[in-house]
Design brief:
single chain, alpha/beta, 11% strand, phosphoprotein, secreted, Protein ABHD15, AB_hydrolase_4_sf, signal
């Protein structure tokens, strides 16, 4: 009994001391990263060409300095970057929880968002999609519980928000809140479930590899068939960003996605599987994945070594057992160069392998104190955001992994939350406190869409003027009707409107 009391006191002491310790520890890490970046947060574009967010303190110099350190937008200078800095007010309006509170702990708020149950007023309608190899994936369409009609008309022009969960298939509290928020702002959220995830039947002996976008490509094709009139946006959470980045890189300008956001992504995934996580988190994630796979233990034994699989204690061992080793015939040994096989596996699945082919704006929302991703200086490819005009990094000092708790969270729980250019939430679904990261991604989608529309109008106006003012010198066409201008045919999915700005917005 005495041992249990001592253990309980120790746990209480850790919970009380941990937030303050992490607060002071992340302050020093933040200073080191800022010194490495050389960022001057008072300027929109610094001398090295990095584009950073401008913060203006309104509560005195001290409060202004604290807000300036809270968040930075790191990207290559471009017309779109300037537009985002001007119209995305949420980017520069982040007040993280600091001090002696559990929400200031990166670990505690990350665990809370991942594991704590959430009573969401959202229900899901599932579409099981049979793939070309007869495998099954699922799309869960989020609809409000009060909505009587469970299916959306194919003639709806509402934008579709494709949500990719983490690679372990866990539907987190953060993801449920995102579905609720997206519904309140007029989106049609659809959660992509990989083979065997979240009750999706495993009809083949093939599991989806970490960065293989083949199944996602067929799911996007189905979404375009079901909602041909709506634009498509994509959001990924945690390790699920590896699948989204792989898809955008392999498909390039044929991804049919208007813009994408990665929440707390893991960029260098091979290194992350090898040595990024501490052993308690590795053990917990490996245990969760083995529990999900245990129902298929018999059938998976035909292609993989199940004994090795279910005795694995690390994420690397688990991934190697699933995709880098095959079941040996009876009476033979399975000696193979697993190290070489492991490297070859990541040559095909590393998310950034085709990053130069990405042709749409991608926003990554990261925190420096992320306990899952690891040290920001070694895990965030800053050179990618400084040189590639399609990638934008919203980097906060605090926020944990998909947490991003704010000081106003809880005190304004009943407010709908104004997010500037984002349209006001529709009635019935806007009563919950909206996460700062969700506000930021919705503003990003709205701003990029408005920017593309303005660019398209400018191009059409210039083409119209050329059509009305061209010809021989001195000749005028005052009586020519505007209808004589050649009209460019538009496809049903408005693909031309989505992709013909590629070479202009990066200027």
């Amino acid at each position: 009994m005495l041992e249990w009391l001592v253990a309980l006191c120790f746990v209480i002491l850790v919970v009380l001391i941990w937030p303050g310790f992490k607060y002071f520890n992340t302050e020093s890490q933040s200073d080191a990263l800022h010194q490495r970046l050389g960022i001057s947060q008072l300027a929109k574009i610094d001398k090295t060409g990095r584009c950073v967010s401008e913060q203006e303190g309104s509560d005195g110099a001290q409060a202004g300095d604290e807000k300036k350190r809270a968040v930075a937008l790191i990207c290559k200078p471009s017309a779109l970057a300037n537009y985002l800095l001007k119209h995305c007010r949420t980017f520069s309006n982040y007040s993280p929880c600091v001090g002696w509170t559990w929400r200031a702990s990166a670990l505690l708020q990350s665990v809370y968002e991942a594991c704590c149950p959430y009573d969401s007023p959202v229900q899901f309608v599932r579409d099981n999609l049979q793939l070309s190899d007869e495998g099954l994936v699922a799309l869960d369409w989020a609809v409000p519980t009060y909505q009587k009609r469970r299916r959306t008309s194919s003639h709806s022009t509402s934008p579709v928000l494709l949500i990719i969960p983490n690679s372990f298939g866990k539907i987190t509290r953060n993801l449920l809140k995102l579905c609720e928020t997206a519904l309140s702002y007029g989106y049609l959220p659809a959660v992509f479930n990989r083979r065997s995830h979240n009750g999706t039947p495993l009809t083949t002996l093939k599991l989806q590899q970490f960065g293989d976008p083949a199944d996602l490509r067929e799911a996007v094709r189905y979404i375009r068939h079901r909602q041909p009139a709506g634009k498509l946006y994509a959001v990924s959470e945690s390790t699920g960003s590896g699948l989204l980045l792989s898809y955008l890189g392999e498909c390039g300008s044929s991804s049919y996605v208007t813009a994408a956001v990665c929440l707390s992504p893991v960029f260098r995934c091979q290194s992350w599987f090898e040595n990024a996580l501490c052993w308690p988190l590795q053990w917990a994630l490996a245990l969760y994945q083995k529990i999900c796979l245990s129902r298929y233990k018999t059938v998976l034994g035909e292609t993989i070594q199940t004994d090795t699989l279910f005795s694995s204690c690390s994420l690397r061992d688990l991934e190697e057992a699933l995709f880098c080793q095959t079941a040996a015939p009876p009476g033979t040994s399975s000696s193979c160069n697993t190290s070489a096989t492991w490297d070859v596996y990541w040559e095909r699945n590393e998310p950034l392998r085709d990053v130069d082919e990405v042709a749409i704006p991608v926003l990554s929302v990261c925190a420096q104190d992320d306990p899952i991703r690891g040290d920001a200086q070694s895990t965030i490819p800053l050179e990618l955001f400084e040189t590639n005009p399609h990638f934008f990094l919203l980097l906060t000092d605090h926020g944990g992994h998909c947490g991003f708790s704010t000081q106003s969270e809880g005190s304004h729980a009943g407010a709908s939350g104004s997010v500037g250019p984002v349209a006001a939430p529709s009635s019935g679904m806007g009563s919950c406190q909206i996460s700062w990261s969700h506000k930021a991604l919705l503003e990003f989608f709205r701003a990029t869409t408005d920017f593309f529309a303005a660019e398209e109008r400018t191009k059409q106006l210039a083409a119209r003027r050329r059509g009305l003012g061209g010809g021989a010198a001195g000749r005028t066409f005052r009586n020519r009707s505007v209808s004589t201008c050649k009209r460019v045919p538009e496809c049903s999915h408005n693909i031309h409107a989505i992709y013909n700005w590629q070479r202009s917005y990066t200027r």
